[in-house]
Amino acid sequence: METEVEKPQAARAARRPRQELVGVVTSAKMQKTIVVRVTRLMQHPLYQRVVRVHKKFYAHDEQGEARAGDTVRIVETRPLSKLKRWRLAEVVARRTRVD
Fold first, then answer.
1. N or C, fewer C-beta in 10 Å, the chain?
2. Are 63 and 35 in contact (CB under 8 A)?
3. Using the 8-state DSSP alphabet, how is residue 3 labeled?
4. With contact defined as beta carbons under 8 Å apart, do 73 and 90 qualify?
5. So where are the chain's domains?
């Protein structure tokens, strides 16, 4: 018979690994929130040409370490607000060019 301490561990083992995405920060003007643009390649269904598709994700940045232009890794998390479902895992590369 399972005890109450073992149940969360069993549930944690059954959970799938968190999804990770890499993208570029487009906006860091909000408090503790960044907007990340993730680009992926997909094949066009009719023309069979490989095209770039972009999607925008809102991510939680607790320390405010990401800035616009940085390449970041974000991981899936529980819903934090109406739009935020991701959190910042790490800053992969800093922006090199200053505009």
1. N
2. no
3. -
4. yes
5. 17-93
- Per-residue pLDDT of 9-57, as tens digits, reads 666 668 889 999 999 999 999 999 999 999 999 999 999 999 999 999 9
Between CA 13 and CA 20 the distance in angstroms is 18
CATH no. for 17-93 = 2.40.50.140
Which pLDDT score is estimated for 88?
Answer: 97
Note the residue count of the chain: 99
Helix, strand, or coil (residue 8): helix
What local confidence, expressed as pLDDT, does residue 99 receive?
58
b/e 29-67 (16+ beta carbons within 10 angstroms → b): eeeebbbbebeeeeeeeeeeeeeeeeeebbbbbeeeebe
Using an 8 Å Cβ cutoff, are 38 and 54 in contact?
A: yes
